[in-house]
Amino acid sequence: MSDMTPRAFPESIDATLDMLQDADYVADRSLATVLFLALRMRRPLFLEGEAGVGKTEIAKVLASSLGRRLIRLQCYEGLDVSSAVYEWNYAAQMIEIRMEEAAGSVDRKDMEKNVFSEKYLIRRPVLDALTGAKGAAPVFLIDELDRTDEAFEAFLLEILSDYQVTVPELGTIKAEEPPIVIITTNRTREIHDALKRRCLYHWVDYPNAERELEIVRRKVPQANKRLSEEVVRFIQKLRQIELFKVPGVAETIDWAGALTELDKVALDPETVSDTIGVLLKYQDDIARIEQGEGRRILKEVQAELASAAE
Question: Contact at 8 Å (CB) between 81 and 155?
Fold first, then answer.
């Protein structure tokens, strides 16, 4: 179980880098810089990039490293206020009403005040994120915002403006201390400029080979050294060809782990073919690799490693 004692924000960019490294998140200095500024300036951080490059993981690392609760709002088409902010426990309210009616001589105003109290309020992620104690504000992850519609985006903009929400039966609930907000998007649609202006922005790109190899060594330490190098080089080249969906860092880690489970110490054409479903999720992409691209890439990788060893 992680330590949930709130800790102070890092005091410098280098300290932010160290915090990420200690949590096995291999980041470049530009990400550490914008993260440091977001924490110091109390501004939401808007992270954009392809799926699987580690955007969501940043929020998880922050929560763990700072000893804060992680509250996640997973966005989807049709997300509404009752799912995102709050709703009433109608079943419990009805039971309470029936019990009071059975007891007789019920004052209607008192009954209404009782059933619409905190006791029956179900806090969804937005409202939950606004109720952190001072010095222990949670990390609020708004994941894949691009999946929602513009109406919800406008509502979210209002929330981020004042960090408060109104529950008609209870009044306005305002954050004692604003949460640490991380917003992610896979860019399936453009987010409105008004919301982006509220945030600091960072594009999370695919890592270069050196950084990706470091990620694999941290996340799959039991993997053979040669295998890790081949896996990273293979995927780096795979991202250079036209695919419907190129593999992200998450797939790199999964593939290295899967190959290690199979006791592989190096790649070969048969192993690539047998395990390609760990990397690629679309049949057209898989067919392209199996029709010759995979063997070509593997030959290039092995030739490069042989040349480097000489």
Answer: yes
Q: What is the pLDDT of residue 106?
A: 67
The Cα–Cα gap between 54 and 250 comes to 7
What the block records as the tokens of 237 is 């080249």
Enumerate the β-bridge partners of residue 164. 174
Query: What is the pLDDT at residue 112?
Result: 77
Q: Where are the beta strands (DSSP E) in the chain?
A: 45-48, 70-74, 86-88, 121-123, 139-143, 164-167, 171-174, 180-185, 200-203
User: Which residue stretches of the chain have pLDDT < 70?
Assistant: 1-3, 105-106
Query: Residue 46 forms beta bridges with which residues?
Result: 183, 201
pLDDT of residue 1: 40
Q: Which of 69, 30, 26 is nearest to 214 (CA)?
A: 26
Question: Which pLDDT score, from 0 to 100, does residue 82 have?
Answer: 82
CA dist 139 and 2 (Å) reads 15
How far apart, in Å, do the first and last CA atoms of the chain sit?
Answer: 47
Distance CA 217, CA 112 (A): 59
> Which residues 6+ apart lie within 8 Å of 147 measured at CB?
75, 76, 77, 79, 188
